[in-house]
Design a protein that fits this description.
The chain has 98 residues and is mainly alpha-helical. It contains five helices and no strands. The chain is globular. It starts with a helix and ends in a 19-residue tail after the last helix. About 5% of the residues have low confidence.
Length: 98
């Protein structure tokens, strides 16, 4: 089931709130700033890091709130694509015959 960005982020927030975890607790345990966590829950990634760093902080958030990491990361990357997340095509040079 595909959802929109706002619904996805509302689900993240609901998971955190259902555990009674304030953002400050997640920030302290993950070393992620509260402003980035607020942005994630509000579907505003304008100040978030790119590529690997962004995936890493989302992964840490998901672990902290107890959501399944791999399927949720895949959904996140689908909803919030980042140029740094695109696979790099490796072009092999054409060589002579064996």
């Amino acid at each position: 089931m595909l959802v929109d960005r706002a619904t996805f982020c509302a689900r993240l927030r609901a998971a955190r709130e259902s555990k009674g975890m304030p953002l400050g607790q997640i920030a302290a345990s993950t070393k992620i700033s509260i402003s980035l966590l607020r942005g994630l829950e509000a579907a505003d990634l304008s100040r978030s890091p790119k590529g690997l760093f962004r995936r890493s902080y989302v992964r840490d958030y998901l672990k902290a709130v107890g959501l399944p990491v791999e399927p949720t990361i895949a959904e996140f990357l689908h909803l919030f694509p980042d140029a740094d997340d695109q696979p790099i095509m490796r072009i092999m040079p054409i060589t002579g015959h064996d």
